Amino acid sequence: MTVGAPRSRIDVDDLIPDLVRLRRDLHANPELAFREHRTAALVAAELHALGLDVHEGIGQTGVVGVLRRGAGRSVGLRADMDALPMDDRSGLPHASRLAGAHHGCGHDGHTAMLLGAARQLVRSGGFHGTVNFIFQPAEEGQGGARRMVQEGLFERFPCDAVYALHNWPDLPLGQARTRSGPIMAAADRFDIVVKGRGGHAAMPHRTPDAILAAGQIVCHLNTLVARRIDPGESAVLSVTRIEGGQSHNVLPAEVTLTGTVRSFDAQSQDILEAALRDGVDGLSRAAGCEADVTYTRYYPATINTAAEAALALRAAAAAGLDTGVAERPAFTSEDFAFMLRERPGAYLWLGQGPRQGETQGEDGIYRPLHHPCYDFNDRVLPHGVRWFVEVVNQALGGMPGTASPH
Question: What's the CATH number where 115 sits?
């Protein structure tokens, strides 16, 4: 289903050249989780220059800028700031200058778009209430949103609703999608240590074989979703790492397995965790081994509330985007989920992929999120700025694209 999208009446073209320079500066100077000191300082300076009430050090390196236009409702707009712990192999003029850090997920673009929205809202006005611009650290697996919430984010900066977006290479440029209910999966991690005693490979009858037990566990784990989860539900379990052994003629004393589980509801999480623990225990015992299991539920599912998802789509249409309801949620995860646990809100996918007949990148190669040669598509910047602005217009009764607060 696609919603008709009029051409946006918000003119942000004059902001874009500077936002491109800012975005590429962030890309060249990436910072990992809870180390976003330069990025946070840049964001704070931009917000101060706009005359906003600026608060730093929330969630260690988070920044919040507050824009007030009289009494009324309040809305939070969130962008993530951290980079991934991986090398940038793009070869671009603005490629990362720091080994082991790369904006391979587009958080540099998200930060630039939210700063652009702050600039536009300061100069355009037209709404009544408060906008909290939330610049969050440590989204990439470290729970920066949870940290900000724990440190009183919504007590200090009340929000009737909170919104965020993510660039989405799987959608063409100019499209936007979201849905009510789950939009991103819960992310769990498991670490299993299978323990034998170790011994000579030529005498396997004298020692439990931890490698054989680990292999049987891997095969068993890959049956759990198919045999324990209702076929009408969705989940994923993947074993992603196996380590054990150092020589061709030695049976190792230990083998470690690591992997991830993705699901959309707590019941599926409970079923899969219990089944994993039971299977590991039984198979390791059958092989004469022992096993330790560490199971961590590090991100909950990202759940959009219905009214706010509808508002996000109206805002996207008002921003001139080709707008529709996402057919299904993604199995990737997002720590914006912690904010949505506390407040109503919605998370939007903003297309940055090639249009029909186009290619992505000068060499025509499609590069997904977390690819070593990924780069944010700067043509998305005006779309993101307009969407953030239209969310405020829709939520706080502004113009253009106004709608009555719900």
Answer: 3.40.630.10
